[in-house]
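Task card 7
Instruction: Convert sequence to structure tokens.
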Amino acid sequence: MDLRSRVNTALKQAMRDKATTRLSTLRLINAAIKDQDIAARADGGDGGENGVDDGQVLAILGKMTKQRQESARAYEEGGRLDLAERELAEIEVIQEFLPRQLCEQEVDDAVSGVITSTGADSIRDMGKVMAELKSRYTGQMDFAKVGPLVKNKLCSG
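Output:
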């Protein structure tokens, strides 16, 4: 079952269960996916009949998670713990649809493997390595943190 179907199934179940927080978060996910579908169609991209693919949905979910983490942090710093808790609850719902996050060792192994498989040997190959990592591990690692790791490995290797 693709991600879009899983979200819709969970949405219907949340309606039946009258789980308001879960339902509103799932509606936000659905809206973000539909916005991306519309943007892809307007750009003449691959949003055609079926809409965006699972890779793009994973990217949307990752972005939504990151936005909520930043908001929760800002709310905590501002003393608004009630709003921070709501953001964290939304993160939990979103993460149900994301693949398991890789641990540090797995990320390091993945980066080393991609560097080897792409034949990257200098910092000029960083874009090629990052593109390959994104195609293989979307939603499984934080690419903002992986970038410096790739850079260090290419500079020292």
